[in-house]
Amino acid sequence: MAITFASILFALAVLSTAASAEPFFYLVRQWPTTACDVYHCHDPPHGRDFSIHGLWPNNDDGTWPSFCSQTKFRRNELRELIDEMNKYWPSLTGSNEVFWTHEWEKHGTCAGPQITTQHDFFAAALHLHKTLNIEDALSAASIVPSDSTTYDTADIVAALRDALGFAPIITCHNGTIEEACTAPACHNQHTCPHVRYPEPKGSAAIAAV
């Protein structure tokens, strides 16, 4: 049975060090075609790119803060970012603004002291998403969408590590590959040794076999 690949997650030392008491950040990207196999999407997925799920503060002890203040989402603070947010950070299941509101209130309010404003929170995620290009990293290692090829997970990890500077650990949970983690606190081993990377059409997705 195929196991769908839902998201890819990087721990970003560029914003803090794992040894500090301050949070480090996970940049979580999702493969839309796979996400739509798991969730009911309001529109069919399109394109060949990962999209942003969120920028999530985490603590070195394995815990993560959430809903750290009552500061509400304010779209008017993000005017210059809205076009890019619609492009790179869309909701697959509902309103973009509802999705962004959730990400800000749950995660963005906990992004201090490194990030203190809504503008900087969303701008940081957009910058990192464009800088850490998953599709280019995989393509450079000849890991491309194919309906007939199976890839070793270790090769995908190596491709991302070599191109982006982060070595994710890819894990499966409840039958679904959930994340690739590069933080020192990530102790899980790869549980899906081989993955398929089908063409992104219909319900196709990166899937473990």
Write up what this structure looks like.
There is one protein chain. This protein starts with a strand and ends with a strand. It is globular, with a radius of gyration of 17 Å. The protein has helices at residues 32-38, 82-88, 96-106, 118-131, 134-140, 153-164, and strands at residues 3-4, 7-12, 24-30, 51-58, 150-152, 169-173, 176-181, 194-196, 207-208. The protein has one domain: Ribonuclease Rh, Chain A (Alpha-Beta Complex), CATH 3.90.730. 28% of the residues lie in helices and 20% in strands. It is an alpha+beta fold and 209 residues long. A hairpin with a 2-residue loop joins strand 6 and strand 7. The chain is built from six helices and nine strands, in the order E-E-E-H-E-H-H-H-H-E-H-E-E-E-E. The strands form three sheets. The protein has a four-stranded antiparallel β-sheet with strand order 1-9-8-5. The protein has a three-stranded antiparallel β-sheet with strand order 2-3-4. Keywords: Disulfide bond, Hydrolase, Lyase, Signal. Pfam families: Ribonuclease_T2. InterPro entries: Ribonuclease_T2_eukaryotic, RNase_T2-like, RNase_T2-like_sf, RNase_T2_His_AS_1, RNase_T2_His_AS_2. Residues 1-21 form the signal peptide.
Following the backbone from N to C, one meets helices and strands in this order, namely EEEHEHHHHEHEEEE
- Average pLDDT over all residues: 75
What is the C-level CATH assignment?
Answer: Alpha Beta
Number of helices: 6
The number of domains: 1
CATH H-level name... which superfamily? Ribonuclease T2-like
- What percent of the residues sit in helical stretches (DSSP H or I)? 25-40%
